[in-house]
């Protein structure tokens, strides 16, 4: 562009000089011959023509360039207008508003998005510049005060607060304020971006509620309990206060849950939660730890206050719960630990309340028990066994032994009872008396029981193929297994996989627990019997209502409890009971087996009373499969 202007300037100078010479010659200032003057005119005319052409051509070029520039500006303006429209559409479509206030010029600019956020017309904010502040929730005014202080000091302020819309709806606003100060540190301009974050806040509150509250009962969960008890312990430490922690568990809830179904169990838990809240009232707080376990936390001045609440809680369960028209009764067991007497932190207090709960259950349930130091060791032992038992299957610590059942007159083996043993990794052999009740309470009996049944049937199939085709395999079954909806299908699948005849499998159930759940277990027992399996009642004589229900049970075998056999020679009443059971069993067509035989005299007495079969240490101790096989080869006829 500069070279073009330079050429134009040069031509103008040349043309000006030539015209000047011509004018000077014309008026006589320059003397010249005629022909020279003539030639000069010709040159000047040509130069003038060229100059005019250049000027006209340049004018066209300039016109074209100017028109192009104007067109470009129009396009740019159109694009800017389109961009502004798009930007405005974006602001209008999202919950965003921009507030710009030039304090120096006292000029306020607010985008229309504020109407969507606040529910007020845009004009209302121009009419009252403090309207945005007037609708802020009263509980959040401290946030606004801090924000204003930051803005005055030139600090970018990011705040979140609630506003109340004209219709009463509460919305959350994210406000990012950007201040501008002059050299004198005075606020001269201020911009703010306002965003509606209500949905995000709701999501956050939902997530927090899920983290700290139980979905079923609405009570704070174990996370909520941990947070709250830590707060209460800090407070109690500061003001020298006392705290009581109640650990409440519903007695036999698992049996009820398995019997009536989980939906009924859930209804019961919801009603229990309401009952606990109503009973405790303003005196404390209720939490759901897990399953049927609840925690209660209360301040107290005298231990008598704690005792009174514990007794009120026990008494509140005397009334029935109505579940979908069905009346249900259930009782609680409660363990109590106290701060500061039983511990200074939540973990210790919880552990000791759990220890007290265990003692309450040992004392017969439906009662409460305060923690005492002498019980702590037993509770630690129980927790240690429970923890180890959860890993026992995966660690291959469980194994089976078999105790022969024999004909007393011939001493021939007619069957074996499968017994579970636990070789604990860091301890050695643990008595079944110690770990079976824990397996029952925790529900571990279901996977463990299935493992026992499967391995017993596999071993029975091995012996069956070796020729011991009449050997019966007895396996103890828990009532919790019977109440499991899929139990029958699992038994059939195990028999099929092991290729073991159902007729050689005898399932042993305990009399006392069976009688407690008679209505629920009876149909299951009938179905098992229909599929060819035998049913045996273990520990017979120790339960209640035995004679009343015995005719209803699909039973093949009665096993006389060891406690009667122990005293058969010394206690006439025990002898009479044994005689009665034997006679009744024979009259009803049952196979009768005496358990726990430990002497030849007991064998003779049983034979005299008509009992033909038995088992016990005097006859055979429990052995592993290979040892049992040696006895089978000697004392059982191979088909």
TrEMBL record:
This is Diguanylate cyclase (GGDEF)-like protein/PAS domain S-box-containing protein. Keywords: Membrane, Transmembrane, Transmembrane helix. The chain crosses the membrane at residues 12-31. It holds the Pfam family PAS_3. Residues 83-158 form the PAS domain. InterPro entries: Biofilm_reg_signaling, EAL_dom, EAL_sf, GGDEF_dom, Nucleotide_cyclase, PAC, PAS, PAS-assoc_C. Residues 157-209 form the PAC domain. Residues 241-373 form the GGDEF domain. Residues 382-636 form the EAL domain. PANTHER family: BIOFILM ARCHITECTURE MAINTENANCE PROTEIN MBAA, DIGUANYLATE CYCLASE DGCP. SMART domains: EAL, GGDEF, PAC. The lineage of its organism: Bacteria, Bacillati, Bacillota, Bacilli, Bacillales. The keyword Chaperone does not apply.
């Amino acid at each position: 562009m500069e070279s073009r202007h330079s050429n134009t300037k040069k031509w103008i100078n040349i043309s000006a000089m030539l015209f000047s010479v011509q004018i000077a010659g014309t008026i006589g200032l320059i003397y010249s011959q005629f022909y020279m003057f003539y030639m000069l005119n010709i040159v000047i005319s040509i130069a003038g023509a060229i100059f005019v052409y250049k000027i006209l051509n340049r004018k066209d070029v300039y016109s074209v360039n100017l028109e192009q520039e104007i067109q470009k500006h129009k396009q740019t303006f159109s694009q800017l207008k389109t961009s502004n429209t798009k930007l405005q559409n974006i602001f209008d479509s999202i919950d965003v508003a921009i507030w710009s206030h030039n304090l120096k010029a006292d000029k306020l600019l607010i985008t229309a998005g504020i109407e969507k956020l606040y529910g007020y017309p845009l004009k209302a904010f121009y009419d009252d510049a403090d309207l945005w502040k007037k609708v802020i929730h009263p509980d959040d005014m401290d946030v606004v005060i801090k924000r204003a202080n930051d803005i005055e000091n030139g600090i970018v302020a990011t705040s979140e607060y609630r506003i109340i819309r004209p219709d009463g709806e509460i919305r959350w606003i994210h406000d990012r304020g950007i201040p501008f100060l002059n050299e004198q540190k005075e606020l001269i301009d201020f911009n703010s971006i306002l965003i509606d974050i209500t949905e995000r806040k709701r999501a956050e509150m939902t997530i927090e509620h899920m983290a700290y509250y139980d979905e079923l009962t609405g009570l704070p969960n174990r996370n909520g309990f941990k947070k709250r008890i830590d707060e209460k312990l800090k407070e109690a430490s500061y003001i020298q206060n006392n705290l009581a922690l109640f650990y409440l568990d519903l007695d036999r809830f698992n049996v009820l849950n398995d019997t009536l179904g989980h939906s009924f169990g859930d209804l019961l838990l919801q009603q229990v939660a309401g009952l606990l809240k109503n009973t405790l009232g303003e005196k404390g707080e209720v939490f759901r730890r897990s399953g049927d376990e609840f925690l209660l936390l209360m301040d107290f001045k005298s231990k008598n206050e704690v005792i009174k609440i514990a007794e009120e809680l026990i008494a509140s369960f005397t009334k029935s719960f109505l579940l979908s028209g069905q009346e249900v009764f259930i009782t609680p067991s409660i363990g109590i630990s106290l701060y500061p007497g039983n511990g200074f932190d939540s973990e210790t207090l919880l552990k000791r309340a759990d220890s007290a709960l265990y003692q309450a259950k040992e004392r017969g349930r439906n009662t409460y028990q305060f923690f005492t130091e002498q019980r702590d060791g037993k509770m630690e032992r129980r927790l240690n066994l429970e923890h180890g038992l959860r890993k026992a299957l995966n660690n291959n610590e469980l194994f089976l032994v078999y105790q022969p059942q024999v004909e007393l007159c011939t001493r021939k083996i007619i069957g074996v009872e499968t017994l579970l043993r636990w070789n604990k990794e860091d301890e050695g052999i643990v008595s079944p008396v110690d770990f079976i009740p824990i397996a029952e309470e925790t529900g571990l009996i279901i996977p463990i029981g299935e493992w026992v049944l499967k391995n017993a049937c596999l071993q029975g199939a091995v012996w069956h193929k070796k020729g011991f085709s009449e050997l019966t395999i007895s396996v103890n079954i828990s009532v919790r297994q019977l109440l499991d909806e899929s139990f029958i299908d699992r038994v059939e699948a195990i028999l099929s996989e092991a290729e073991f005849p159902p007729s050689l499998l005898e399932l042993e159930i305990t009399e006392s627990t069976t009688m407690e759940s008679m209505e629920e277990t009876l149909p299951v027992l009938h179905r098992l019997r229909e599929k060819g399996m035998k049913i045996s009642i273990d520990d017979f004589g120790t339960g209640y209502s035995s004679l009343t229900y015995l005719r209803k049970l699909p039973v093949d075998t009665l096993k006389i409890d060891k406690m009667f056999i122990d005293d058969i020679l010394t206690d006439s009443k025990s002898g009479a009971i044994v005689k009665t059971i034997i006679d009744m069993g024979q009259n009803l067509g049952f196979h009768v087996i005496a358990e726990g035989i430990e002497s030849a005299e007991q064998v003779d007495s049983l034979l005299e009373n008509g009992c033909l079969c038995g088992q016990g240490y005097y006859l055979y101790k429990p052995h592993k499969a290979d040892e049992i096989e040696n006895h089978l080869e000697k004392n059982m006829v191979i088909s």
